[in-house]
Amino acid sequence: MSADRPSGTSNEVKPECVSMGPLGAATVPVQELLCIFGTGDFGRSLGQRLLQSGYKVIYGSRRPHSCGPLPEGAEVRSHAAAAESARVIFLCIHRENYDILETLKNQLKGKVLIDVSNNLKKNMYPETNAEYLQKLIPEAQVVKAFNTLSAWGLQNGPSDANKQVYLCGSSAEAKQAVTEVATKLGFAVLDRGVLTAARELEDFPLQLFPEWKLPLWLAFGLTTVLFFYLLIRDIVYSYVERGEDRSFRIMLSLANQVCPIVSLIMLSLCYLPGVIAAFVQLYRGTKYQRFPDWLDRWMLCRKQLGLLALGFASLHVLYSLVIPLRFYVRHRIAVSTILKFKENQTTELDTTVAWRSDSFYATGILGFGLFLLLGITSLPSVSNALSWREFSFIQSKLGYLTLFFCTFHTYLYGWSRFLNPSSYKWYTPPGYMLSMVVPTLVLILKQLIILPCVDRSLTRIRRGWERTNPADDSKLSLLT
How does strand 56-60 pair with strand 164-169? Predict the structure, then answer.
């Protein structure tokens, strides 16, 4: 038989098939075991998310046999037994309970401890919770993470909550382990550096609308000032000069005057800092110098200013819709109709007034529709789906168009009333005239910026061109 075998081949017979074991045993991945200290709301929610993501979860509790309901599939043991079984441990306990960890130093040696704790107020302790924990268990690897999430956010997943997980720590290996867990849960990880950055992370959940403070105070100030200004002009003036009690107009009429004025001013304030920034760059001849701090803060809160302006505009629309339902309006219409009927009078249609009235409502509807579009595209879920050019076109081009329609809507409302001396009660201008000052200024300045000579220079500056010698205007002129 050996003579029939081709030369150069092995004497060993190769099998034509490979023996295979059970398919299930070969394809089932090994589940990583994670430990959680704490069986409160956050600990239970975190455990549920980890189980759904394919991890095995074991809880460490002071009362393993009476710790309340836990997610199905999780185990519960004493702190010491749970700590020995896992390398990564989530500490879902408050700083006041860290004393139990001192007795577990041997079990926690070399472990990755994820501190998710927060305090009730800023600077509550001289050092952060994470740094205190690291001093308490020096041979462990402490990572600050997951403290900016809530139990509700973990239950609903990253699609309905904050998608970002901030972390910091002094061990790159420990941070990598935490990053893998957070990524598997569906979160995006932002590394803030070493453990000393824990102060910043622990202050995040304690902040109350930090970006909304200036817009809210501005809205409150404008609303208060305009309310009392219009109260004096409309209510107090009528009572003092004519003896009429018009206090019933405070609830709807006065509010319906304040809301559009505040809305239009705040909308124009969204675009005024951009115009100012353009003139600053033209004056300096470069884009590489920082804007003044007040202008920086102003530009950073433009989104909040716009959303508040949209809120006031929506209130104005709702107030306007109920005008025909008011008893005062229906009473005036009935009295006027009966009076003309008794006197056998008719009124000819004034087409000029009809055109102005229809134009007034049309510009208001267009302005509010564009306003809604701006508000919708400012939502993160919508803006993330747009390219930068699309987002810029909507927020800038359509934004100025919105401001134009809303301002023109106000001009149509005023029409020729500014020529009537009776409009200036106690020598004060009507409220709608006050609302047109800032938006008109913004639109005029914007027209100057889009002039070809100015726009060309501004484009050059924003593309990196610099005026190296500001004094030599004969050689390097901005408007060339």
Answer: unpaired
Q: What are the tokens at 204?
A: 């995040």
Output the pLDDT for position 21: 43
Q: Cα-Cα-Cα-Cα dihedral of 202, 208, 212, 213, to 10°?
A: -110
Question: Strand, helix or coil at 88?
Answer: strand
pLDDT per residue as tens digits for the range 254-304: 999 999 999 999 999 999 999 999 999 999 999 999 999 999 999 999 999
Does residue 74 come out as left (phi exceeding 0), alpha (psi in the -120 to 50 range) or beta?
A: beta
Q: Residue for token digits 């124009």?
A: 268
Using the predicted structure, report yes or no on whether residue 2 has a pLDDT greater than 70: no
Assigned token pair, 314: 């929506």
Mean pLDDT on 139-162? 80
Identity of residue 395:
Q
pLDDT the model gives residue 105: 92
d(CA 187, CA 178): 11
3-state SS class at 23: helix
- 202 with 144: CB under 8 angstroms? yes
Residues contacting residue 31 through CB under 8 Å, at least 6 positions apart:
54, 55, 56
| Burial grade of 348 (CB within 10 A; 0-12, 13-18, 19 or more) | exposed
Q: Specify the length of the chain in residues.
A: 480
* Phi, psi at 273, each rounded to 5°: -65, -35
Helix axes 253-284, 302-321, angle to 10 degrees: 150
Residue 448 near residue 426 (C-beta atoms within 8 A): no
Number of alpha helices (DSSP H) and beta strands (DSSP E) in the chain: 21, 8
Round to whole Å and give the CA distance between 170 and 187. 21
Return the amino acid letter for 208.
L
- The pLDDT tens digits for 49-64 are 999 999 999 999 988 8
> Which strands form 141-145's sheet, in the order they lie side by side?
75-77, 56-60, 33-37, 88-91, 112-115, 141-145, 164-169, 188-191
Using alpha carbons, select from 88, 89, 96, 84 the residue that is nearest to residue 125.
96
Q: What was the pLDDT predicted at 372?
A: 95
Calculate Rg over the CA atoms of the chain. Answer: 34
Is residue 263 classed as helix, strand or coil in its secondary structure? helix
With beta carbons less than 8 A apart as the criterion, state whether 281 and 461 touch.
Answer: yes
Helix (H, G, I), strand (E, B) or coil at 143: strand
Distance CA 151, CA 175 (A): 22
Return all residues near 448 (Cβ < 8 A) that are at least 6 apart: 454
Query: Which class for 268: exposed (0-12), middle (13-18), buried (19 or more C-beta within 10 A)?
Result: buried
157 band by pLDDT with thresholds 50, 70 and 90:
low
pTM: 0.72
